[in-house]
Amino acid sequence: MAAKFLSPTKPTSPLISSPLSFNSSPSLPPLFFNPTEKTLCSRKASSVSTNAKKKNPWLDPFDFGDDPDMEYGEFYSEGKQEEDPRPPEDPNNPYGFLKFPSGYNVEVASLGLKIRGDVRRCCCVISGGVYENLLFFPAIQLIKDRYPGVQVDVVASPRGKQTYELNKNVRWADAYDPDDDFPEPAEYTDMLGVLKGRYYDMVLSTRLAGLGHAAFLFMTTARDRVSYVYPNVNAAGAGLMLSETFTPPSLNLSEGGYNMYHQMLDWLGRPGRKVPRHPVPPLKVSISRKLKEYVEAKYTKAGAEKGKYVVVHGIETDSVASMQSRGDTDSLLPVHVWAEIANAIRGPKPVFVIPHEKVREDVVEIIGEDTSIVFITTPGQLAALINDSIGVICTNTAAVHLANARDKPSIALFSSEEKARLFVPNAEEKKCTIISSKTGKLIDIDVEAVKDAIKNFEGSLVLA
């Protein structure tokens, strides 16, 4: 019956009369093949020649990055984003103005939000404590420079959240430990609801993601989900829920030192669509006047004067307020070693920072009753104390980076030269004198070398 409806001038194709066979035709590639085979070499060559990074292979194995021959001529697809054109709220209106959830009123959203990839709201999930959150400050500044008008929020551990009183670029900082593998179900779902209700355009995470953490980021419903992943089989499946992934060389991201976030920073500052590559800004912190006045009352009570004391930080303790890095656990010295170092200080008064009150008795017993001791637990108070000092003597704690951020000279004690180069690169430019142990253990550090450095340190302060 079907045959009589066929036109005699258009015979049927021989491909229809015989069943399809992938093996019978050598010109057809197999249904499933390895992307590294010869069939894709030409496309790979064009992609590599333009330095275009291949996108997430979990999402599309045939995506080889941006087309180098693509021309973007639209006004909405080139350059940086503009400030949010949302009108200000009416103070005379008791109901406010434009009080609708972000993301619902699509009429006021710019066309470039989707075409150009604008980021109006960004959330950063930071793993680690004070040290790791402090080193993420340049990334936050880079986001603000790359996306004008962006609102940056942070999710960090309770200790890490305290760091953001020093960062004026952060709108909200929420306390939630992303490193907890078994969080409370109520806290987990509550944080998901909070993040989902803020309608983020991009979520960044510095925790090594497996399938569980990737699912957490996926459920925030952010458009771009960027995270580090495990460098082993634990990363299997995480790429399906992430837009961009970074694989660190080890399981401990903090072992990368000062440049531990270099992969994410390289991606955030990437050039594209007539936007040049953004350089990584230096580490800077801002201190409020209220915080300065509070800390000034503290060190004045301890017997120190503004601009006439040296901060000593890095006393050995089991307190979580020690502010040391996860990548360098050997970064604290006992009190008796600090006593030898403090005896070599002439002129400025040494002020010992203790992270817990139980350490005060040990310091008074070993160093003396007239010792200036300041009890400080938050990074903001430590930054204010360093800001009013003439310099810092410390181990590998957050104090060395806070001194650099406030442009104060410092002497940093490390367990090895490798650690020193890793955590304080370009030390001379940062007015930092490095003293490292020759045995690889901080307890074996040469105290005489530290005393000689203190003499040069005091001389430079006089010249300054």
From TrEMBL:
One of its GO terms (cellular component) is NAD(P)H dehydrogenase complex (plastoquinone). InterPro entries: Glyco_trans_9, PNSB1. Residues 1-20, 42-65 are annotated as: Disordered. Residues 42-51 have a biased composition (Polar residues). It comes from the Eukaryota. GO terms for molecular function: glycosyltransferase activity. GO terms for biological process: photosynthetic electron transport in photosystem I. This is NAD(P)H dehydrogenase subunit 48.
